[in-house]
Amino acid sequence: MNARLNALATVLDVVVLVGLGLGLFFAPLTLVWAFDDGFATDLLLSWAIAVDGWMLGHGVPLTFTLDPLLAQSLSLGDTNSNFVVDVALLGVGLLTLLWGYRIGRRSGTRIYPVSTWFLAVGTLVALSFAMVFFLPAHMVSMELMDALVRPALFLAAGLALATWVGSRAPGGQVLEGVLPEGLLAVLRTGVKAGGASLVGLVGVAALSVAGLVLVSFGTMITLYESLQPGVWGIIVLSMAQLALLPTAIVWSVMWMVGPGFALGTGALVSPLGSTLQAVPALPILGIIPANPPVGAIMVIAIPLAVSFIAGVAATAMLLGEKPGSLWRSVQSTEIHQQPLLRIVAASALAGGLGAFGGFLLAAMTSGAAGPGRFQNVGADPAQIALWWGVEIFVGVLLGLVSGALGRRSQMAAR
After folding, report:
1. Contact present, 141 and 52 (Cβ < 8 Å)
2. What pTM did the predictor assign?
3. Domain limits, the chain
4. Quick one: average pLDDT of 43-68?
5. Cβ-contact 216, 282 below 8 angstroms
């Protein structure tokens, strides 16, 4: 692939990405405009809502300025007629991140990395600027800089993951030629064990949310009926909840980690105890139990178990197939090459990566989701980083030690 063809493919990739993201909102809204509204309302308003949803999916804060009459009809009062919503609908952001990873894994990107990065991020920034600049006037506004930077960060994160993660990743090949073998093994083990701990717990949370949807299906249907959205309204509401689903999965992760999450000021959902108040009549929120089940505190063992498994699986990467003793004679082995110290270093790196990942996930899914007490929704990023970082460190440490002792026992038995 030559440079011009790679540049064209990159630009088209980003255009398709934006089209898909906007289409998730605009297509069902167009159906409502056509069949429910009978073409009577302004289609540009549906377009504006689609742009707002796409931006919110990347964590762009939206400022709502309600008409005084509308605010009074909603019993919000004058003080709550202006409010901010910045809890990300991570389904859209996840699509952008995965699309960036896809672009980064192309053969053309490996040949022309700088131009591909520049064109991909630059095209998305240009499209974001066009969306904001030509956005029809309505009750929602956003900061231009947030609208330009935040979506681009998701795309850049996907490109960065493609550079460092996966077989034959260019970043890993560069490190192989620079770092000594021992340090490289610690780095790889810490990153892979920490990443596996993060991804593994998110997977467990996704399965848990799927199970809760099945168990709470009747409650969700009741909430749908209470809203009386109509057929096309159900389609729009369902698409919005699909965009919100990854955010709900992250909230489930925060619950498993321990601190839990808030659904408004004074409404905490945690395995240590829940204090639910009135929550929005959003069907997906029907999966949240009013009270935590008996023994819910034991759920904190899940992150430890996932990290333990990741540590056991990464033992050979760090210590080889024949790990030997955890502490060897200082006459024959230098202090920095002692297996036990390498295990502690790799575990600390995994814990640090877990704390950073937990902080990012909590920060993107916390903030304001509406007026009044809903200005405080989500988890505390600092608490999540501390809890999850410690849990991953302990789990990976125990897993690596257990894996090393187990392999040593197997070798002795032979």
Report:
1. no
2. 0.87
3. 1-177, 179-414
4. 88
5. no
